[in-house]
Specification:
299 residues; ABC transporter involved in vitamin B12 uptake, BtuC; 4 strands; mainly alpha
Amino acid sequence: MIDFVQNTVDGIMFGSSYALLAVGFTIIFGVMRRLNLAYGATIMLGAYAGTWLHVHYQVHVLIVALVILASTVLTGIYVERLCFRAIRRDAALASMVSSFVIWMQLEEVAIHILPERTYSFPSLFAAEPIELGAFLIRPEHVTMLVLAVVMMGALHLFVHHTRHGLALRAMSENPRAASYMGVNTGWIMLLSFALVSLVGGVAGCAILATNEQITPYFGLWATFKGLIAMMLGGMGSLPGAILGGLLLGVAEAHSQWYLGNAYKDLSAYILLFAILVLRPGGLMGRRILSREEFASRRV
């Protein structure tokens, strides 16, 4: 029982980073009904920019984090301009394919910045594990969980209690009606990409500072984890993204402990398959579909 509780706690804390990755995919899909496959590579390029600064100049970790956030936001705007602003809204397949091409481009740029296989990444701080009776909690995991809670709370306030958030929700419901009501849809789309890139940069910093290393596979890893967490919770649902990320973290923590590290990723795919068979829309996807159907009937 002690091992079970310990693994559950570890899974929740690390799953909070998956939730942040899923939130990025969910906001873009919820606003534009498109998948941004370059999201993981966007975070990776920003992380490589900060890591390059750390490797060559050994700057403070906070400066590295600021460089990562700024680079990720700029890269996200670049992706928005090339893959989504320049392509019509009804051409969802074309924008998804173009984001895949940009994914490859961003990864190549990152690899040219730092050509070696693995680089060290600065940790947030060095501290001993916290002992709570029979349980151990890593301070890095606590920091990751706190960052996730703060970011999710800030996103909730932004989406539900600001004029820009109201415009974003209106655009996600009906872009044409939102534009008729005076919403600048181009600006909202740009703001959405900048926002999710900032969230992704925070998630990338937290994950890399916990692992204390970065590899060229980080972009692919972030894309898969974010997409799986989003699909588990339900595409288009922010609460579902959070729930899917936490569930994915707990499932991986238990499978790694009881089955071994080789089954960690396999358990994620098995869980996704089971959820999609039992609830094809994800854990909270049916609620989104029912709400849209009800809104269409009212119109």
